[in-house]
């Protein structure tokens, strides 16, 4: 597995097929415990991973590991990459809003064993990925009709959109081969994202009359320091806007789809610790961005919740 271009897919699969659902279970168990309701109330499950493929999938394995009802409606998302943290929230929002009483368990679980390999003098972009990526899993429960007597919403998903950036073919891609999942990243990725990000912001926030990007809180996928630096510069963001994102990147690395779930958790915990009025650093509105292969961008408009409501 450690040699750069050696056949190793079987060895990698043997690891991730077992460990990805188990890691997802750890995150899901914590989310269900904090939600505080019986797991029998979960109606839908979305499981997302870029770490391997198998049948039956991680969604099936997690259903068994958690002891969910066999009638839970499952959705398995493989090979989406780093934008998928936004994708799962978009899908969960649609499911919750179109199925009365739905409670959607969302789980993102990523293990780098499928991509890890030694360096190569001729493929330095792969080395960048090895330096950034990390293992992690995040989970949350989504519904559209909270019973506030027993449930404590943390954020509201207001709108969600997906787009492919222009002139970005081949900027980020991955290919599943006998050597595992290979990763390719062009050096102009930060520039492509920073050049196009304001268009996504304008489309998302014009309907609610917001054009000051420092007036909202930020949950941005931490693809890497260069991306964050260029987005900050392009939008003239204050350094504290990316505080939660940079903290997660420095502590855990780029965990692909799980990152934005970690950042949501970090932000609401810091907001509570610092006595902020809302789960979004005291602000009302926020944005969640996912960037990944395509180049694909997910944009989710968030509304924070008063800290009192989130902690009662």
Automatic annotation (TrEMBL):
The protein, known as: Chalcone synthase
Residues of the Chalcone/stilbene synthase N-terminal domain: 1-146
Protein family (similarity comment): Belongs to the thiolase-like superfamily. Chalcone/stilbene synthases family.
Keyword entries, A-Z: Acyltransferase, Transferase
UniProt record, GO biological process: polyketide biosynthetic process
Taxonomic path: Eukaryota, Viridiplantae, Streptophyta, Embryophyta, Tracheophyta
Domain Chalcone/stilbene synthase C-terminal, chain residue ranges per copy: 156-306
Stored Pfam families: Chal_sti_synt_C, Chal_sti_synt_N
Top-rank taxon, per record: Eukaryota
InterPro entries the UniProt entry points to: Chalcone/stilbene_synt_C, Chalcone/stilbene_synt_N, Chalcone/stilbene_synthase_AS, Polyketide_synthase_type-III, Thiolase-like
GO MF annotations, alphabetized: acyltransferase activity, transferring groups other than amino-acyl groups
